[in-house]
Q: What sequence folds into this?
């Protein structure tokens, strides 16, 4: 499949005096129609990465270096004007809390109409039809066109946000924990709907969550982030069958499997490093059960089996095939 989004060596920092590198040389590709999940603990940089790609970062966060090629657009270089042209139409963003993203003083219908009017000159009647259509797509009765955000349940608000994100049938929908505020039942039904719509319309999804069970069901490929870096990237089935990075292994143990037998929630002891002063070498070393002397040096990334990237010294070719010791 054709590459739709190509992120190369992206670096994002917060602050000036003592900058925090929230995203550290991340490279990631999303193909047309693909569902890519990004997981990691809070503070690992996963949301910052999404907002950088969508060009929705606000100061003091800024892109320091790297490129984001989206469908031929060099996202990092686009002006606000150029961005307005393609945002919502070619790519859209669904945020964690629709309460923050929706305008509280406008009805859902008015917000949908504004979104449509910003990109297309169509009659009021056409606009109304489009707005009704897109609400139905996400399972909301069009009667709610006249509802205000606070009159809807949390699940309905998230659905309304997704309706907005789909008005123009974009190629890419970027989602930041869109279901994290919902109960499990609402979460599952919303995710099933998103997946059905994705299959129907063929858009790609870049999806951030801290919930491994969600990505295990819906994503084709999985990226695991730790302390601003990608530590593992590969097909979801591969990561779940055989996680390679010790952090990925820990994450999988920390989340109970929905399919297999229930495992105990273990969690990963310790906490991520302070990104103002990250340790030299591997960032996971203080929590890693397999830490070695060499981990004080920065690990390279390796392709291991079907995993495209694993950032860990355990997978250095020299360790995989030990060199014979020379006799004295
Ligand atoms: Fe653990 Fe070392 Fe691999 Fe880091 S590089 S994850 S400390 S084994
Ligand atoms: Mg977040």
A:
């Amino acid at each position: 499949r054709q590459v739709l989004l190509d992120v190369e060596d992206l670096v994002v920092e917060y602050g000036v005096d003592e900058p925090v590198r929230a995203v550290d040389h991340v490279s990631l590709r999303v193909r047309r129609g693909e569902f890519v999940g990004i997981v990691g603990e809070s503070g690992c940089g996963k949301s910052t990465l999404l907002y950088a790609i969508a060009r929705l970062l606000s100061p003091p966060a800024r892109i320091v270096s790297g490129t984001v090629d989206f469908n031929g657009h060099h996202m990092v270089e686009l002006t606000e004007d150029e961005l307005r042209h393609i945002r919502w139409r070619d790519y859209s963003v669904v945020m964690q809390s629709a309460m923050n993203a929706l305008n509280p003083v406008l009805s859902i219908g008015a917000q949908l109409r504004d979104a449509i009017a910003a990109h297309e000159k169509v009659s009021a009647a056409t606009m109304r039809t489009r707005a009704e259509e897109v609400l139905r797509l996400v399972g909301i009765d069009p009667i709610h066109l006249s509802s205000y955000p606070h009159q809807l349940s949390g699940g309905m608000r998230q659905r309304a946000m997704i309706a907005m994100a789909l008005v123009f049938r974009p190629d890419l929908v970027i989602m930041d924990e869109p279901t994290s505020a919902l109960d499990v039942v609402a979460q599952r039904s919303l995710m099933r709907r998103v997946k059905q719509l994705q299959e129907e319309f063929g858009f790609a999804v870049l999806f951030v969550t801290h919930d491994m069970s969600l990505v295990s069901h819906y994503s084709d490929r999985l990226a695991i982030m730790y302390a601003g870096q990608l530590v593992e990237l590969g097909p979801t089935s591969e990561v779940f069958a055989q996680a390679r990075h010790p952090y990925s292994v820990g994450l999988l143990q920390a989340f109970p499997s929905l399919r297999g037998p229930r495992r105990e929630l273990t969690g990963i002891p310790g906490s991520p490093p302070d990104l103002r002063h990250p340790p030299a070498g591997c960032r996971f070393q203080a929590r890693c059960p397999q830490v070695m002397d060499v981990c004080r040096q920065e690990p390279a990334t390796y392709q291991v089996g079907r995993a495209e990237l694993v950032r860990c010294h355990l997978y250095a070719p020299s360790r995989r095939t030990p060199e014979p010791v020379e006799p004295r």
Notes: The longest strand covers residues 3-14. Residues 16 and 247 are 30 Å apart (CA to CA).
